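[job 0412] stage=complex_fold ligand=2-acetamido-2-deoxy-beta-D-glucopyranose status=START
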Amino acid sequence: MRPSRQLPLMGLLFFSLIPSQLCQICEVNETNFSRLEPLINTMLKANYTKGIQGANVLLTLRLVGIKSRNLEQQLSQQIKDDINSRETELTSGQLALGILALGACENQDKEFIRGAHLVSKLGARFQAEIQNMEAHDGSPLTNYYQLSVALLALCLFNGSYSITNVTYYFTPENKNFYFEDQFSVDTGAMAALALTCVRRNTQKRVEAITEDKIANYTASLVKKIQAEGKRGLFGNIFSTGEAMQALFISSDYYKNEANCRETLHTVFYNISQTAFNLPIATAQILPALMGKTYLDVTNPFCSHNPVRFNVSTEKPDTVTPAAAPLDILVKYSVRVNDTSHTEVTVRAGSVFLDVMKAAQKKNETLFRFTVEETSWGPYVTSVQGIRASSNDRTYWKLLSNGQPLSQGAASHVVQNGDNLEVRWSKY
Ligand SMILES: *[C@@H]1O[C@H](CO)[C@@H](O)[C@H](O)[C@H]1NC(C)=O
Ligand SMILES: *[C@@H]1O[C@H](CO)[C@@H](O)[C@H](O)[C@H]1NC(C)=O
Ligand SMILES: *[C@@H]1O[C@H](CO)[C@@H](O)[C@H](O)[C@H]1NC(C)=O
Ligand SMILES: *[C@@H]1O[C@H](CO)[C@@H](O)[C@H](O)[C@H]1NC(C)=O
Ligand SMILES: *[C@@H]1O[C@H](CO)[C@@H](O)[C@H](O)[C@H]1NC(C)=O
Ligand SMILES: *[C@@H]1O[C@H](CO)[C@@H](O)[C@H](O)[C@H]1NC(C)=O
Ligand SMILES: *[C@@H]1O[C@H](CO)[C@@H](O)[C@H](O)[C@H]1NC(C)=O
Ligand SMILES: *[C@@H]1O[C@H](CO)[C@@H](O)[C@H](O)[C@H]1NC(C)=O
Ligand SMILES: *[C@@H]1O[C@H](CO)[C@@H](O)[C@H](O)[C@H]1NC(C)=O
Ligand SMILES: *[C@@H]1O[C@H](CO)[C@@H](O)[C@H](O)[C@H]1NC(C)=O
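[job 0412] stage=complex_fold status=DONE, emitting structure tokens
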């Protein structure tokens, strides 16, 4: 798992974007909506997400126009409570997502955004990220995914940001778009959305030359996204939804209907494999499948045409209970400069995090660790007391049989005989 990306309008701030000059969207035809029902059902489990971590789901419910009044109210309340009680601890990306979710599609929460001065606070957070880059060799406090969400929210909600900073720091060659030499698709996609907003922003006109430059950045980012395309997906299944949004707004990729069919075909297959089993994963792909982008958040027609899905009311996941819980044996190691090995026994069906806990129980000195809750689940922040640092671009990489995990520690199910490793790494 990579370093945490997430984290994490009243008279106020509505300005009209030049009506979403979409190049070409690729959406699911309503005759195929039943294919999306598993996604909707997963999102409704967001009932169990805590605090600000429900922001992505609330944003999607509102943007797509899924009517679930109770869930919407619950999420909105918990996000506001979380902001009230620990606003200073929230990262730039978390605060930005909170604003996008609360402010999406003209609703009463805009009073809260205004009353709590969230947009100007976000502006200060954005500046702090820039200052950290100036002081720490170009490394932000969090990462470029969060910085991009912050810029997007500032742009959509009439916040302040420096255009010079944007043109300086968002060049597509910036190291922060890369993760161990790999272009980060979701980061690039979010930046493309933010830059497009900045370019079209009617409240803060930019000079033609700057507009041109930003258009070039966006085009280049979108090219890099397309270069990561494989069987209709971009990056991996979790980055594909945001990649689609970026392609909608600044490429003609989906003018070719075969491209759209390929993406939808693969996504439907992945849905049938229950690949999107976290509320956040669902929330990030659904807007694109319904033909929406995050630029629609402040669009006056945002919540028109609400969608009716057949939501299964009383059908929790049919977990077939194993006849008898089996124990499995796995190898586990922690590598810094030296490697500490152990073997632990866990129940069949255990996840990576269970193995870490079992090892910690065996030897606290060698295997102690800490995590931080994010909307993608717990994220490992330290092992043996050694902490990941965004200034040094260090993190704890989780591997199974030599391959980095594509899911978080609490999602990746381990198998008997697996060789699991936590490795001190640089990105
Ligand atoms: C946006 O903010 C500027 C000041 O920064 C203000 O003059 C303008 O009226 C605001 N626009 C809206 C739509 O609130
Ligand atoms: C959905 O597909 C049907 C059948 O192909 C077509 O008639 C209809 O226009 C499509 N709807 C949209 C919104 O594209
Ligand atoms: C919901 O179920 C009804 C009856 O089974 C069906 O006619 C309708 O097409 C379904 N709607 C969606 C969006 O799947
Ligand atoms: C959340 O789930 C619990 C337990 O299933 C249920 O009692 C509660 O009504 C749900 N809340 C909402 C808003 O759906
Ligand atoms: C970023 O913006 C701040 C405030 O406007 C300015 O002082 C600083 O020079 C800018 N840095 C760059 C690299 O553009
Ligand atoms: C944008 O790209 C075009 C074509 O590559 C180039 O001619 C132009 O000079 C670029 N504009 C800026 C401001 O960099
Ligand atoms: C519905 O999805 C199937 C499977 O991807 C596809 O073959 C079909 O063309 C889709 N129908 C419409 C109307 O888009
Ligand atoms: C998603 O679909 C792709 C392409 O068919 C496939 O390679 C991948 O294994 C699928 N992932 C999941 C988790 O279903
Ligand atoms: C690993 O070894 C290098 C070189 O000996 C040393 O500088 C570094 O501090 C060590 N790292 C840790 C986390 O012990
Ligand atoms: C944990 O490992 C260290 C280093 O190998 C060892 O000295 C210590 O005795 C172990 N502690 C336990 C409780 O096994």
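The longest strand covers residues 327-335.
[job 0412] exit 0
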